[in-house]
Amino acid sequence: MKPILVCNLYDGLEIYRGEKILYGKFLAPHRVISTCRLNGGLREDLLFVANHQACEPKPCPGKEHGRCLAVRKPERYHHLVCEYHGLPPKKTALLGTAANMTLAGWAEESFDIPNTEEVLKVMAVVTAGVETNAGRAGDPAQVYEWEGHFSKFLPPGTINILLFINQELAPCALVRAVKMATEAKTAALQELNVPSRYSCGLATGTGTDQIAIASLLTGRIPLRGVGKHVKLGELVARAVKRALKEGLSRQNQLTPETLRYVPRLLGRFGLTEEIFFEALKPYLSREHHLWLFKNRKVVLSDTKLVAAVLSYIHLWDQYLWGVLPPEIIQEALLEQAVLIAIALSGKTSSFEDFRAYLARFQGFEPLLLAAIALGFSEKWNVTYFHFLS
Asked: Residue 62 has what pLDDT?
């Protein structure tokens, strides 16, 4: 497949998409910082930065993901991919991922410099997959590296960020831009409630995230400020957040709308949809359990219920983070569990009755399941229902 010119953000840069690859072609010198194993670090002699799909997110039957050449032999992988696409291996920084290049998120931000004809432009191109490898900083690590070798293969799931800036950044500013882009990535994951796959916390990234930032060498005084108080920092953060959210929407169908489903919110606590309904069986009659399961999407996506469950989860997070002390958490959860039952049943006048019933349940999971079961059972515990049915 012949590469297609996708955009020309500014003079000196062309961005192409080809067969399983996206790359920026420098028509003028750029200063680049990247996490690439080959040609990574700080460089001013590169001609291309690229992002390549090395494999599918899930391995085919009989094959392990770890056999991917990008993991086993990164040097060989780099050269083969570059040569296949006609890119000079020594002049290319290459990111690898299992995400689809046609599902990348794109975002451009700009700012007109006052009293000049200059425009500050930033473009982020992000591929993202978080279904298998998302993690929270400080989670227990699964892999260690020693003398050039990893103890086992890294799992799939990666956020790759390509960032292009049409003004010259000093080396220190490029490092700061990496920091700002990383903070923006974490903020986007938090806003989407992306769970860690290694703990019950919210993810701050994945275990294999990569980034490459390129700034055009203009000959002007280099920009040095990329923090939160400087316009360039704002542009970088906004572009990364928008592109990442778009990429996650396309790759993982992860959006605010798809989040409004109770089992999806509870997945980071081990209560995925299948486990959630299995765990719910002791709390509901067989008839009500089947009834709820058949109507699970509409019932468990009720926005009042979702709001109450999110508040319940937030209380638990605050306890785990040490904000709420142990002696208060059960009472706080109990009162929020009552609100969950009320949200689902619609019976706002039953607070005290619901509280008396739910007080017998202890712990995050039993109390939550009991509240949902109570709310659904009581929703249809009305006198007229028996006549209508």
From this structure: 52
| Residue in this structure with the two tokens 């000093």, named with its chain if needed | 170
CA distance 337 to 309: 8
DSSP conformational letter for 221: P
Strands in the chain per DSSP E = 4-7, 13-18, 21-26, 30-34, 41-43, 48-53, 92-97, 105-112, 119-128, 134-135, 145-146, 149-150, 159-165, 205-206, 210-216
Instruction: Tell me the C-alpha distance between 119 and 37, whole Å.
Output: 33
Q: Judge whether 96 and 35 are in contact, CB under 8 Å.
A: no
Domain boundary among 204, 236, 252: 252
Burial class (CB in 10 A: 0-12, 13-18, 19+), 254: buried
Which structural domain range is residue 34 located in?
A: 4-252
Please report which confidence band the pLDDT of residue 368 belongs to, taking 50, 70 and 90 as the band edges: very high
Q: Residue 71's closest CA among 85, 55, 82?
A: 55
Residue 43: both structure tokens together: 């460089």
Residue 366 to residues 210, 278, 358, 370, Cα–Cα distance (Å): 40, 13, 10, 6
Are residue 319 and residue 194 in the same domain, yes or no? no
DSSP character string of 88-111: -GGGEEEEEESS-GGG-EEEEEEE
Residue whose pair of structure tokens reads 């109390």 in the numeric block: 367
